[in-house]
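Example 281, ligand NAP.
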Amino acid sequence: MKDDQTSIIQETIGMGTWHMGDEPVKEQAEIEALKVGIDGGLIVIDTAEMYGEGAAETLVGKAIAGYTRSDLYLISKVYPWHASTTELPQALDRSLERLGTDYVDLYLLHWPGDIPLAETVAAMEAAKAAGKIRNWGVSNFDVSQMQALMQVSDGSHCAANQVLYNLGARGIEYDLIPWLQEADIPLIAYSPIAQGDSRGNHFRNDPLLKSMAEQKGISVFQLLLAWTIRNGQTLAIPQTSDAQHMIQNIEAKQIRFSAAELEQIDARFLPPTKKQPLEVI
Ligand SMILES: NC(=O)c1ccc[n+]([C@@H]2O[C@H](COP(=O)([O-])OP(=O)(O)OC[C@H]3O[C@@H](n4cnc5c(N)ncnc54)[C@H](OP(=O)(O)O)[C@@H]3O)[C@@H](O)[C@H]2O)c1
């Protein structure tokens, strides 16, 4: 049984932090955006030791300094090559130091690596027993990797799988999403708005999405975000450094689709009909 999971299942939108903290000139705006998110009711912040080699965690630490720690749900991730019984505790301590906290709510193996899963799980369980993480999970794991994880002692304690999911990357609907639902392991959707303007411009200019968004009085990016959380059982973690975008992302929680709208979207952005390799960024 996976304890303490309800808090992420109940959340549908959190805050991503990749590329944040990289440029000092942007720091104030980035901190402000995260605070607008927290003040607007978002509690989940997703970060990783990889992001800016610790710079994103440091930024998060600054943003959350004035808030009550227990009101927030912090997720961080360990590099696969740090996911051993000797390295993981040290990587975790460095993350905690940067975040200015003594625990993370969820600690994820960032992607599958060479260290045996049994060793990583043992290291995660030890960190949990030490009170430095509340739960652990994985990221970028496909079905076969989840199945392998379940074979490992305590592997079933996995509390989430964080994978790429947006309207342009629907492959996981074929097998991974049903598998996770069956195993009662929450899905965390990363890059839910297809990385915004940097990669998602074809969505922004799509006639169907444009007209649907216009009818709803929202932006195409809000529509993309609302679509990833449409079943109410997915936590999406969009990243924004822009306070206005943060407010729009919070508003996306309230956006609903009719069955007819979902059918129109499916007809244009086809759901998978066979197994596809797990997409990663
Ligand atoms: N586990 C993994 O391997 C993995 C991989 C990738 C990402 N992630 C996590 O998932 C988070 C999100 O993914 P992502 O950052 O790749 O992509 P994303 O959230 O899909 O897109 C981020 C981009 O969208 C823009 N944006 C955000 N909200 C917007 C809005 N309402 N309107 C218009 N533009 C908007 C942002 O620019 P502005 O700042 O201008 O708003 C930013 O450039 C990451 O930050 C990270 O925490 C995890």
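Summary: The beta strands are 44-46, 73-78, 104-109, 133-139, 161-164, 187-190, 234-236.
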